[in-house]
Amino acid sequence: MPNSAGTPRAQAHEWTATQIVAAINDGTTTCEAVTRSCLERIEAREPIVQAWQYLDRQKAISRARALDRSGHRGPLIGVPVGVKDIIDTCDMPTEYGTPIYKGHRPANDAACVALTRKAGAVVLGKTVTTEFANVHPGKTRNPIDPTRTPGGSSSGSGAAVGDHMVPLAIGTQTTGSTTRPASFCGVFGYRPTWGDLRATRVMEASGSLDTLGILARSIEDVALYRDVLLGVAPQPVSREPYVPRIGFCRTHAWSRLDSTTQTLLEDAAQRLARAGANVADVTLPVQFEQLETAHRVISGFEFARNFTYEIENHWEEISESLRNGRLKDGLSCSYETYVENRLLVERCRTLLAPVFDQYDVLLAASASGEAPVGSDATVNPWVYMIWTTMHVPSLSMPVFRGPHGMPIGLQVIAKRHDDRRLFAASEWINARLI
Amino acid sequence: MPNSAGTPRAQAHEWTATQIVAAINDGTTTCEAVTRSCLERIEAREPIVQAWQYLDRQKAISRARALDRSGHRGPLIGVPVGVKDIIDTCDMPTEYGTPIYKGHRPANDAACVALTRKAGAVVLGKTVTTEFANVHPGKTRNPIDPTRTPGGSSSGSGAAVGDHMVPLAIGTQTTGSTTRPASFCGVFGYRPTWGDLRATRVMEASGSLDTLGILARSIEDVALYRDVLLGVAPQPVSREPYVPRIGFCRTHAWSRLDSTTQTLLEDAAQRLARAGANVADVTLPVQFEQLETAHRVISGFEFARNFTYEIENHWEEISESLRNGRLKDGLSCSYETYVENRLLVERCRTLLAPVFDQYDVLLAASASGEAPVGSDATVNPWVYMIWTTMHVPSLSMPVFRGPHGMPIGLQVIAKRHDDRRLFAASEWINARLI
Question: What's the rounded mean pLDDT across residues A216-222?
Answer without folding.
Answer: 98
